[in-house]
Design a protein that fits this description.
The complex is a heterodimer of chains A (507) and B (365).
Chain A: E1 4-15, E2 18-29, E3 33-38, H1 44-51, E4 59-64, E5 67-69, H2 74-79, E6 82-85, H3 97-102, H4 111-129, H5 144-157, E7 162-166, H6 174-189, E8 193-198, H7 201-207, E9 210-215, E10 218-224, H8 230-238, E11 256-266, E12 272-282, E13 285-290, H9 297-304, E14 312-317, E15 320-321, H10 331-337, E16 340-343, H11 347-351, H12 358-361, E17 373-374, E18 377-378, H13 380-393, H14 410-423, E19 428-432, H15 440-455, E20 459-463, H16 467-473, E21 476-481, E22 484-490, H17 496-503
Parallel strand pairs in A: 3-8, 3-9, 6-7, 7-8, 13-20, 13-21, 16-19, 19-20
Antiparallel strand pairs in A: 1-2, 1-4, 4-5, 9-10, 11-12, 11-14, 14-15, 17-18, 21-22
Chain B: H1 9-34, H2 39-51, H3 54-79, H4 87-105, H5 110-139, H6 143-165, H7 188-194, H8 207-224, H9 226-236, H10 238-243, H11 248-275, H12 286-296, H13 301-324, H14 330-346, H15 352-364
Helix pairs in contact in B: 1-2, 1-14, 2-3, 2-13, 3-8, 3-11, 3-12, 3-13, 4-5, 4-6, 4-11, 4-12, 5-6, 5-11, 8-9, 8-13, 9-11, 12-13, 12-14, 13-14
Classes of the chains: A alpha/beta (507), B mainly alpha (365).
Chain lengths: 507, 365
């Protein structure tokens, strides 16, 4: 066997009662790309946080290049040649690339010396790894893919031999992701070791050499990538047979429910967040909106759900103009009353209140429903009963209506929100990132539910950054780029490559 | 990255406040030793002063009554995510409302004047809180800053009114005339005397029962009604409130009015229950103590009842103590109160980490 870069033996980590990492042992060969996959809450992040020094393991040992080490904090980790690229970048937007890279690694008193030395070093790194980043560019003006490369440069500049990447493709277009994988390939060729944390099976299969699969804090498999298939990995992750293929019968669209015409949104600084967006949505169909996050999809959902005012354009819902709807209550409440349900993109910050018990979140947005009032007060029993019904219909675990929502996993939180929104029997469902941070088992369940809604004649507008999801669920696909609709095509004819090009605005 | 709390719920709710209180008393004891007194003896005197004899208990409960109102006021705003520092000013203005009603209408029978005065206290308190609430909701002016400023404005306004307008004609003290007896809220010892029970004469009055009722009503409104549901949603997660279609600005403004009205009721206890006239100093920091009461009571009515009782006992016991021990001045009592606020509020989680470690050791074994 090849030389080992990292070797973990019997690592355990507890958070109070929770055993977040159980007896973790695995090894990563030097100069390889090693995938770590698992559902949300499987313990991947905890494990990587231990490697990077954010947490201390309660027991067990870590060896780096054959030597036993204790990593007390991230400085320790960097000094030992471990670099990490976080899912949310740790960059100062108003600084140049060069300044960002030197930040925290300055030497001596005068900044100029550090910058000069760094510039030379950077040129070499840029060349060796094909990163192509302009050291004088302002970080805030760079695209997401480039910002990520800056993060990689930062780690390399600090002498990283082991690079940990946390869900690196979550914010990238397929083309940008391919670029990233090319860079990772070069890193590997130069003898660096890459740890890739992801939940996307396709990526793992494409570029890793070996995979560690985690479930419920434990390692359930250490496999050589070349020897397994997608289904094997999915089954390992979930612990049972998973059906990744969705039964999609041909759509039978009915009358038009939603007609969006020339919708525009300009923010206070004059930036066009939405630019002349038009499309329609009919009964019994799912229209998917594809795009890299931050290209206007969130704003579109906010306008359609009444949380934000459009600058121009019209939205007609069953023939009623929504943008000028005369109402004394907030629009979000009025729209909901008209039968527009909304599963928001940012589940934990919009869709529910984490500090509320689940039964309280089960009525968020529907708290005026007469069925749950008793005089001036709530009919607590009715609310709890409703929540219990959601829990059993959507298989929420643990089945406890009094547990605080924040303590549930992402998938179970999402099930509660979906149950609540579906229960209102809407005509139009706006759905943002239905499976972001949701485990595979729950994804399967959620997708089936959405399909059933469509088959029941509802109109569904689906916004997702996961192309696979868009392709699996949608009947028609609208691609957004820089606030505009850059393409619309039937799902049956769409390919990932074509969508990727549209998402990047290259067409 | 914050680690999940490792403490069981009961420890966070009960053990931590008790430990914090203990720490505050310990430091107070240290200071008392430094000025040459015996802290244990002082503590005994204080407890005895607050609970040791019927009259002491009466005074303790009288102070507790006001603290319950101002504590609830802070909690009401807190649940909407607002830190209302203006209880003092709101109570002051509420006093003006009470006074105007009494000075103008106290020739009427009590069953007319007293309800009107109660209403006036709430309306004036709410109105004084409305302005900062409106500024916060519509203009984004920070509520902490505006409510503090409104305390000063209230103080200046009341000084002018009392010195120039409301002062009893021919008097040199800045106070109003005595209200007619019909406007006095019955004292507890009077009520008890009607039932044939003899109680010592203290300012404890029927407002105490109103305070207890307010605790229950507060609980029902905040936790069991859709109004309170919107209030708490706005306080915990404003984005979710917007998502749910709640009128966030309106909720904020109404929450502040609710808060101001509660603070206003404290003025009723002082003016109609005890002094029966308004003077310059009647608020006496009660509005500020409300902040500590709410913090220590975790913004829950039951907690507020307990912490209001604690602060009521501190006030009464402290007064008794300073009679017995001239070295222990009023400032010493304020120091103790300050330390309790420091340990229970600012250093709330001081003992969390060591406690969590201790619990871990225990569970491992």
């Amino acid at each position: 066997m090849a030389e080992l870069a990292i070797e973990l033996t019997g690592v355990n980590k507890y958070f109070g009662e929770v055993h977040a990492n159980k007896n973790i042992s695995f090894a990563v060969a030097k100069g390889s790309i090693h995938g770590i996959i698992g559902e949300n809450g499987a313990g991947k992040s905890t494990l990587m946080s231990i490697l990077y020094g954010y947490y201390q393991a309660d027991s067990g040992s870590i060896r780096l290049n054959g030597q036993e080490v204790r990593i007390r904090n991230s400085h320790d980790a960097i000094a030992r040649g471990i670099g990490m690229v976080h899912q949310h970048f740790m960059l100062v937007d108003t600084f140049t690339v060069l300044e960002n890279i030197v930040l925290g690694a300055e030497q001596g008193l005068a900044l100029k010396q550090s910058l000069l030395a760094a510039r030379a070093h950077l040129a070499t790194l840029n060349r060796d790894y094909g990163l192509q980043v302009d050291p004088d560019a302002i970080v805030g003006e760079l695209g997401v893919g480039e910002q990520q490369r800056v993060e990689i440069l930062k780690a390399l500049y600090r002498g990283a031999d082991v690079l940990i990447l946390d869900e690196p493709t979550a914010v990238l277009t397929p083309q940008e992701a391919d670029d990233l994988f090319r860079i990772l390939g070069l890193l590997k060729a130069q003898g660096k070791t890459v740890l890739l944390i992801t939940h996307k099976l396709r990526e793992v299969l494409d570029i890793t050499d070996a995979v560690t699969v985690m479930r419920a804090g434990e390692i359930v498999g250490n496999v050589v990538t070349a020897e397994v298939g997608k289904e094997d990995l999915a089954d390992l992750m979930v612990g049972r047979k998973v059906n990744l293929q969705l039964d999609k019968t041909p759509a039978t669209p009915g009358k038009t429910v939603l007609q969006v015409s020339n919708l525009s949104l300009t923010d206070a600084r004059g930036v066009k967040l939405l630019d002349d967006v038009s499309f329609e949505l009919r009964e019994g169909e799912i229209v998917g909106i594809a795009g890299v996050s931050g290209n206007g999809q969130s704003e579109l959902l906010e306008i359609l759900s009444g949380m934000r005012e459009a600058s121009a354009g019209s939205v007609r819902y069953n023939g009623t103009e929504l943008t000028t709807l005369p109402t004394r209550e907030p629009k979000a409440a009025a729209y909901r009353r008209l039968g527009i349900a909304h599963v928001p993109e940012d589940r934990s910050r919009e869709g529910l209140v984490k500090d509320f018990s689940t039964f309280e979140n089960a009525i968020l947005g529907y708290h005026d429903d007469p069925a749950i009032q008793r005089g001036l007060l709530f009919n607590r029993k009715a609310i709890i009963e409703r929540c219990r019904r959601f829990i059993s219909e959507f298989d929420v675990r643990p089945a406890n209506a009094f547990r605080r929502s924040g303590l549930f996993s992402g998938g179970n939180q999402q099930k509660v929100i979906l149950a609540r929104e579906i229960d209102s029997d809407p005509q139009l469902m706006l759905i943002g990132q239905p499976t972001r941070g949701v485990d595979i088992g729950a994804i399967e369940f959620i997708h089936k539910r959405l399909m059933a809604l469509r088959n029941a004649g509802k109109a569904l507008l689906l916004v997702s950054v996961e192309l696979d999801e868009i392709l699996a669920l949608s009947d028609r696909i609208i691609v957004m780029n820089a606030g505009r609709v850059s393409g619309e095509l039937p799902a049956a004819q769409a390919t990932a490559t074509e969508l990727g090009l549209l998402m990047g605005g290259h067409k | 990255m914050s680690q999940p709390s490792n403490l069981p719920r009961w420890a966070t709710l009960w053990l931590m406040p008790v430990l914090n209180l203990f720490a505050a008393l310990l430091v107070s004891g240290l200071v008392i030793t430094l000025i040459g007194e015996d802290p244990v003896e002082c503590l005994q005197l204080m407890i005895n002063g607050a609970f040791g004899y019927p009259e002491g208990i009466g005074y303790t409960l009288f102070y507790t009554t006001s603290f319950i109102f101002t504590g609830l006021a802070v909690a009401a705003a807190f649940h909407a995510g607002l830190f209302n520092i203006g209880g003092e000013g709101q109570m002051y203005l509420a006093g003006l409302g009470v006074t105007l009603v009494c000075l103008g209408l106290d020739f009427l029978p009590g069953w007319v004047v007293i309800p009107l005065a109660l209403l006036a206290s709430m309306v004036f308190g709410a109105a004084w809180a409305f302005i900062p609430g409106y500024l916060q909701a519509k203009r984004g002016s920070h509520i902490v800053v505006t409510t503090i400023m409104f305390n000063f404005i209230a103080s200046a306004l009341m000084t002018w009114l009392l010195v120039d307008k409301l002062i009893m004609p021919g008097s040199q003290t800045p106070a109003t005339r005595l209200f007619a007896e019909s406007a006095w809220i019955p004292m507890l010892h009077e009520l008890a005397a009607n039932l044939g029970i003899e109680l010592p004469q203290t300012p404890l009055n029927a407002t105490f029962f109103l305070a207890l009722i307010s605790l229950v009503v507060f609980y029902l409104m905040v936790w069991r009604s859709r109004w309170g549901y919107a209030l708490r949603t706005v306080g915990l997660n404003e984005k979710a409130a917007r998502y749910a279609g709640m009128p966030v600005s309106k909720v904020i403004i109404v929450a502040m009015c609710f808060s101001g009205a509660l603070a206003g009721l404290a003025a009723v206890n002082e003016l109609l229950g005890s002094t029966h006239r308004m003077n310059l100093a009647f608020t006496n920091g009660i509005g500020f103590v409300g902040i500590a009461v709410a913090l220590m009571g975790r913004n829950h009515p039951f907690g507020i009842l307990l912490s209001a009782l604690l602060f009521g006992a501190l006030t009464q016991g402290g007064l008794d103590l300073s009679f017995e021990k001239p070295a222990i001045t009023h400032e010493m009592i304020i120091l103790t109160q300050g330390l309790i606020i420091l340990f229970c509020g600012a250093l709330e989680n001081l003992f969390q980490t060591p406690l969590a470690l201790a619990f871990k050791q225990m569970t491992k074994r």
